[in-house]
Amino acid sequence: MWQRLTRAISSAIALGLLAGCGQPAARPAPTPAIQPLTETLSLSPDSAEGATEKAIAELQTAIRERGGSAEQYARLGAGYLQRWRETADPSFYGKAEPALDKALELDPSNVDALIELGALASSRHDFGQALAWAGRAIEQDGHSSAAYGVKADALVELGRYQQAIDTIQRMVDLRPDLSSYSRVSYIRELTGDTPNAILAMRQAVAAGAPTADDTAWARYQLGMLYFNSGQLDAAEQEFQAALHFLPGYVHARAGLALVSAARGDYDGAIALYKPVTDTLPLPQYVIELGDVYAASGRDDLAQQQYELVGAMEQLYQASGANVDMEMALFDADHDRHLDSLVDEGQRGVRERPSILGHDALAWTLYKAGRYEEAEAEEKLAMSTGMKNALFQFHMGMIQLGLAHTTEGSTMLRTALAINPYFSLRYAPLAHELTA
Amino acid sequence: MKRCLAVMLGLLLTVAWPTAAALAHPLGNFTVNRYSRIELTDTEIRVRYVLDMAEIPTFQELPLVDQGYASRKAAELAGGAHLSADGRDLRLQASEPQLSLLDGQGGLKTLRLAAWFTAPRAGSAIRYEDTNYRSRVGWSEIVLPGQTDVSHELTDYPSDLLSSPLDQHAAAFTAGVETGARSAGPSLPFKGPLDLLLGDTGIAKAKDAFAGLIDPAELSAAVVLFSLLAALVLGALHALSPGHGKTIVAAYLVGSRGTAWQAVVLGLTVTATHTAGVFALGLVTLFASKYVLPEQLYPWLSFSSGMLVVLIGLGLFVPRLRAALLQAHHHEAEAGHSHASHEHHAHGHDHDHDHDHTPDAARPSIRRVVALGISGGLLPCPSALVVLLSAVSLHRIGFGLVLICAFSLGLAGVLTAVGLLLVHAGSYVSRFKASARLLPALPMASAFVVMLAGAAISAQGLLQAGVI
User: Fold this and answer.
1) The pLDDT of residue A378
2) Which of A3, A246, A345, B457 could pair with B306 as two cysteines, CB 3.0-4.6 Å apart?
3) Element holding B73 (H helix, E strand)
4) So what's the ipTM on this one?
């Protein structure tokens, strides 16, 4: 990890400071008559793309000309993965694994390759495998902050929170930076300490270079922390800040759309969402757009979005990706696949026994009318004390199903107290039921 | 650092990837891929245009697909393809649209539309830009006359591990009026701000040049030798870029009418401190990166060394000011004497007793020279630091240290040379009788310049720290 860190540090320093002591830069003449389109969305800034692209091109040339070392293949694989994150272009994703395999073939103890393979497994939602790769990486280098990061992510998704906390502690001790602070933030959020989660995410943002896409991502997360605690203005401010530093940053645009929708400005939200789902049709954003259409009474357009999510589900299934948990929640919300819903939820929680997994299963059980089992699952979901409006809402509905009217109403009120805008679908319902 | 967080992003980004599904779109299931091949005939410019949509965009497009879809869509795509000749826009006319819906992954379809876009032949400077689906992820290829068709009209995407997907949006070439086509490579004009900074500036080149030395694939004797030489030259060049104690050396030597020996000492001290500073900051960086981020640390180091220089400048300025005031009295009393004194000096004698008439404060003692050299060199040069850190990262610390020494040697050579030149120039200046009256002011002015330089360094540090 030192390799990566020092390289990152040195380039950051070189970038920031050579500008100060070198010759003034001669601006290249603009290429004539070629104008960038005004309305381009990017997943990440041109700047970051440029850097990753350049690194990849250099490695490709070096490996082609002189044959590559394990180190170079590991860096190439890491570059492809990073580029995939920046562009969402899956052809980079497809090339990452062979490159990393090649690195391990040349040097079975290459720490970078082990870490990247762990990250790759995580992105596939194969958290057991991710944990195994991270373990091997830590075996090789017990001081690699990134290896602990991969390990912590897997542990969180597997619901092993105490171990995750220990791992993140170790990570932040090794290197208190954007990566470790953002994980500190997430684990605090999951365990119910939202104010300090916000604090840690602030630190994460402060620790990053303003225009880096990691920083934009941390800002987006910070915005979501505010949103999830009902602070629309603060959330909007963070999304705007992310966009200020990275114009066109897709996730921040989606965040702004979320805020607009929460304020009841459905047309504004739709105008913001559409380019987002055109650029990066992530199920989450397509669902949110569908919900805005539904809330504004355009059911046919909403249905189109939900069908698109259905198509994505088909693709996930065909490719063996493990997204049962997310899909179970979506299907339960939209009364889809009702006969196989609980199976889906159970598969989800088996693969990801996290509080989110338990919550999804609970909601499928509720939809199937199995309120007592649902209550037991939702209790597991709420066991870490996370201040999650949706959990409270789910539990409230389950309680109402069990005819525990007082408890149910209290929980619905709690949901609204945590975040009055927690769901375009359910917040109005919660209001109605507690009125 | 990037990677760790990115894992979390990866979780969100999870997309379906083909495991063993042969039917899967090779470029992933939400790409929109475009291909343009430009051909010239005697009378026409023709563009072979192919659009290839993966499963998700096809699914989004399907509600629109009906009887008239193919020609409607082809015309729409032709509208987004901009062709110009000698700066005049040419309207592209779409014809022969062929639409096919193919079986994709998960029981979904993929859409493929091919068509010809034509315009009458005109002009010779041809520019083409495809603005269709610019914000969508996907393969984007432009084939000019005489160039290789990489994807064969989007039917065969290269799966080479060492190639990246094409991302070409605009191209320009010159068409020979009689002989058909002369082609130029597609120009890819869209560069990010960092690209502009990194790719095309002297800064980036200097950085690449020196930092690049550390990373040759193999360390053959020739490579090592070349690297050492290159480091030496780069160090020499580096000394000539502004802000590396050179100004301070110059100002001091001119101001204090230093000697050749002092110039050498000053040059060497600056260099030695500079090198030590790189090592120290490198160590601090490695160690402190556990606690603070070096990119945040550096500006403050810059600031504090700048302040140190200001203090030294102040230390020079105040006594000289006092001395100058004293000397003014002196001159009133013994007009004309100063000429002799300065000519004396010009011969380069450095015994104190030769300079009874020059106030002590203006006279550089070796101790003061060394102190100034240290303060001037205290600011470690980032590019040297890059080399050190790169060396650490590549497990080639020894090589890195040697390179930095070579770099410093080059730096020392030039700084000392500059110093000697100035000493010489200083004595030249003092031969002018006309300027003799200015000479008493020179030490003060130089001390002032030292202060200014320090302030500039501090301000730069503050700027980088984001304080101002």
Assistant:
1) 97
2) B457
3) helix B69-80
4) 0.72
